[in-house]
Amino acid sequence: MAVERTLSIIKPDAVAKNVIGQIVSRFEQAGLRVVAAKMVQLSQSDAEGFYAEHKERPFFKDLVGFMTSGPVVVQVLEGEGAVLKNRELMGATNPKEAAAGTIRADFAESIDANAVHGSDSTTSAAREVAYFFAETELCPRTR
Ligand code: DGI
Question: Which residues hold ATP (predicted)?
């Protein structure tokens, strides 16, 4: 399987619950490597730009409000099949529907405050990684 990169965001609810380390552990245990990481307080325009594809959706305002409600941890994860692997670790968007043992089943409260974001395709991963990181900020982990 091809080595891919995917963008992960640990959302404000999970940061507030102090479970950053527990979530990163799940990525590491699944064989994903962190190749870039930073904690940021998103501005309204940061969040609107990131979620531009949802601009017309009824929940857009709430989503932007939530994503700017506190700091987030933005990471680039690398590994074989990283995009799908991260989506499997996350679980369904609605934590009530998320499979047992997934990050959202274990840490998320609601469809708004759902603990994590992960790119849904290699195409969106490329856009999302570039939205937050310069290529020079990605650190090779091959050694
Ligand atoms: O890729 P996901 O985060 O799993 O889901 P998505 O890209 O369809 O939606 C992005 C975020 O928008 C999601 O994590 C939470 C929010 N969202 C999605 N669908 C709904 C929603 N929020 C509300 N309140 N209601 C929804 O139906």
Answer: 11, 59, 87, 93, 104, 114
